[in-house]
């Protein structure tokens, strides 16, 4: 599979779609909202551009994409200190993702979004700034915008996706694992680390060319608290259980062993120290803030039970649906789509029993970097 051409979250809005299974990512946006608001306010204060270009990288589609847009409009509108400049300010949003992203889904919901936004501000006696929304398809590991043209870059839960499966990670090096698992050789973990380093430095180089001096960037990604690359909390557990599901299908003769051995998910969860060190390689960027958050990792909606076996089952099902929405395009292109239902049924079962037996609650770690271009 060619990642930058074919990888995508599951399209549409049916039960397996990303739009219906992105509550964890929504929680990440809500958790990091104060940092985004602060960065937008500080960027307006320092630059007060008449026409502002704001980009969401790896925007995907669904309610989360427009939640970011709405948060920025609200922050700018409520930013009373610069009322005169802001009243004349216009915003150009660019929503970026890979070409296979369901951009139509976003544009089909824009009309309703605009109506609701207008109503929301009118009720509060506020006038939102004029804003325009466009898509920019392409990999964020390439140049996407003209030099010195972007005032604010945002990205949530996207930059941990690598540009490719680690270079030089060949067929049988990570036997029985789909990510860095307990039986992964250290050399393979190092290849993952090297690929992230290469990709993240490239990402920062591209953005530094595109962002205006004193422009701001807020990047949130799945990371890890531990220094140990083998321990990314609940993310590691999720991928271990996905590997276990595939090993079961190998044992049942449904999947060839070589197929499993040669499948690796192109994702990497860095630590705060790793991120700091990589940003330091780039002498045009200053870290204004970096924060680590732990989320309980439950992807259920609020109406579901919170205790007991029914809750464990609900967490198992919703985690399985969330993982499927994010990884189905990768799994289907490698193994074919006939194994999907069975694989994720197994995953639900394993994850439910993990939740039932969980003594110490594991968390999903996210890290938010607030950067300023010097
Ligand atoms: C988990 S989703 C997060 C989406 C959204 N920001 C949210 O919070 O719901 C990750 C997104 O990153 C996109 N992505 C991954 N690699 C990318 C790349 N190289 N360039 C642009 N987008 C990428 C994926 O296509 C996917 O839509």
UniProtKB/TrEMBL annotation:
InterPro entries for the chain: MeTrfase_7, MeTrfase_capping, SAM-dependent_MTases_sf
Gene3D superfamilies from the UniProt entry: Methyltransferase, alpha-helical capping domain, Vaccinia Virus protein VP39
Transmembrane spans: none
GO MF annotations, alphabetized: metal ion binding; methyltransferase activity
Pfam families: Methyltransf_7
Keywords: Magnesium, Metal-binding
Name listed for the protein in its UniProt record: SAM dependent carboxyl methyltransferase family protein
């Amino acid at each position: 599979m060619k990642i930058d051409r074919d990888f995508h979250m599951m399209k549409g809005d049916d039960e397996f779609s990303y739009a219906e299974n992105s509550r964890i990512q929504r929680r990440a946006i809500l958790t990091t909202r104060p940092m985004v608001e602060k960065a937008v306010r500080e960027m307006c204060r320092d630059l007060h551009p008449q026409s502002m270009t704001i980009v969401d990288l790896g925007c995907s589609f669904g309610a989360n994409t427009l939640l970011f847009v709405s948060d920025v409009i609200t922050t700018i509108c409520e930013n009373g200190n610069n009322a005169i400049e802001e009243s004349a300010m216009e915003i150009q949003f660019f929503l970026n993702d890979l070409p296979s992203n369901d951009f139509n889904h976003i544009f089909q919901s824009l009309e309703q979004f605009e109506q609701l936004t207008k109503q929301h501000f009118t009720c509060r006696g506020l006038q939102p700034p004029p804003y325009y929304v466009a898509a920019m398809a392409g990999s964020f590991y390439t140049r996407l915008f003209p030099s010195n043209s972007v005032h604010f870059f945002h990205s949530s839960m996207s930059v941990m996706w690598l540009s490719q499966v680690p270079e030089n990670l060949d067929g049988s090096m990570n036997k029985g694992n789909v990510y860095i698992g307990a039986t992964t050789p250290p050399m393979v973990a190092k290849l993952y680390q090297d690929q992230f380093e290469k990709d993240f430095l490239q990402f920062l180089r591209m953005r530094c060319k595109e962002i205006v001096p004193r422009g701001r960037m807020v990047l949130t990604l799945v990371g890890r608290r531990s220094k140990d690359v083998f321990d990314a909390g609940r993310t590691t557990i999720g991928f271990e259980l996905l590997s276990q599901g595939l090993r079961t299908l190998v044992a049942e003769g449904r999947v060839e062993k070589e197929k499993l051995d040669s499948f690796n998910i192109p994702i990497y969860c860095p630590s705060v120290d790793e991120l700091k060190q990589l940003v330091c390689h780039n002498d045009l960027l200053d870290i204004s803030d970096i924060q680590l958050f732990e989320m309980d990792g439950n992807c259920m909606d609020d109406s579901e039970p919170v205790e007991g076996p029914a809750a464990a089952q609900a967490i198992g099902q919703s985690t399985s649906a969330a993982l499927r929405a994010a990884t189905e395009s990768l799994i289907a292109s490698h193994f074919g789509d006939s194994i999907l239902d069975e694989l994720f049924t197994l995953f639900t079962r394993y994850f439910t029993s993990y939740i039932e037996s969980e003594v110490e609650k594991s968390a999903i770690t996210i890290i938010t970097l607030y950067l300023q271009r010097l």
